[in-house]
Amino acid sequence: MDSDRLLTFLVVPDSGGRTRSLRIPYRQLPWVVGAGAFVFVLLVGFVGSWWYLAARAHRTALLEAQVTELLAREERVEALAQTLAEVEAAYARIRDMFGAGTAPATEELWLPPAVGRPSGASNLPEAEQFLPTSWPLTEAGFVTQVLLEGGGTDHPGIDIAVPAGSYVRAAGSGTVADAGEDPIYGSYLVLDHAEGYRTRYAHVSLLLAARGDLVRRNEIIALSGSSGRSTAPHLHFEIFLEGEPVDPLAMVAQP
């Protein structure tokens, strides 16, 4: 009878081992095929679900990375906004200062001679004060950078923001030890004073004294500018004692 017929599967190993057979009655074949189809569908569903979950996990990781980047950008934007506010506030102070027309420091003012300066200490009055204690400008300006030492951020002097062409004057009587051009300082002068003091005036636009000239306290020696490594008109002013930097604000008073 057909119900007693069997479907035989032979498994023959390549190595020549024992041959195995599997016999399935024809009446059970639909159940076996159905079970196989069910297992196949489950397997396909499992693989499909795994790929779907893997794709979602990958997308989630990408979204998390984008969120992290956006948060970092937001922090940078906030920092930039704060910096911009500080710069705008400083600019407003400078603008108000320039617009208000600050009064020049006119307690004593010497203009450069029309026919050159004397050379030789005997040409200076005995009562002349040599120590660099005068403000190096005829106006107050705005101190934008103070003296910094150590930590790789040395700044041996102060920066004073003033309009280009402002009068730069000698902080004390002395001799022009050096004057010229420098990639960093731009146009500059160096004065030797009494008791081991030396001053430097940098980033000027015009030199009105030359090496070897004698200058009086408060004598105009240059015009301010933005030469050398500079981003805006200002005067860089330094004081040294025996080669060591001294805080200018400890010796000179801003008007």
The total of beta strands comes to 12
| Class based on secondary structure composition and strand pairing | alpha+beta
Helix content: 25-40%
- Mean of residue pLDDT? 78
Tertiary shape: rod-shaped
Largest β-sheet summary: 10 strands, antiparallel
Radius of gyration, whole Å: 43 Å
Low-confidence region ranges: 99-104
Number of helical segments? 1
In terms of DSSP E residues, the strand content is: 25-35%
| Termini gap | 124 Å
**Order of secondary-structure elements:** EEHEEEEEEEEEE
Description of the structure:
The protein has 255 residues and is an alpha+beta fold. 28% of the residues lie in helices and 27% in strands. The protein contains one helix and twelve strands; from the N terminus they run E-E-H-E-E-E-E-E-E-E-E-E-E. Strands 3, 4, 5, 6, 7, 8, 9, 10, 11 and 12 form a ten-stranded antiparallel sheet that branches. A two-stranded antiparallel sheet has the order 1-2. A hairpin with a 4-residue loop joins strand 7 and strand 8. The longest helix is centred in the first third of the chain and has 72 residues. The chain starts with 5 loop residues before the first strand and ends in a 9-residue tail after the last strand. 24% of the residues are buried.
